[in-house]
Amino acid sequence: MAESFQFELVSPERLLVSEQVESVVIPGAEGEMTVMANHAPVMTTIKPGVVTLKAASGQEDRYVVFGGFADILPTGCTLLAESAVPVKDIDRADIARRIQEAREDVADAKDEGSRTKAEQFLNQLTTLEGAILPA
Q: pTM of the entire structure?
């Protein structure tokens, strides 16, 4: 049995998770990463994606996050999300609204750097939509 550590998932609205877990897979800006007990200290930004946690009890839960950052220490991990919701509660209309807003951001971009950043975010959202919502 893997060693457990404290994991917290916090959104501006509320604390979604605060429990002992065996592992957490987070959508880091540089790619997905699995966090386990005694992980080296790291701070990373989070891109839109799915956070999968395996509780010490063995139960697995999944949450959709829309950006933020994670603070990882050997004794725990805190993920501060811009927005987060359990996958089972995801709203197709909310994803569609976020995608439409991202498309508008691409169209309204004033310079190439802003446009590139907006296009990356739009791509992340459409990939997320395809991964969590049935066709």
A: 0.77
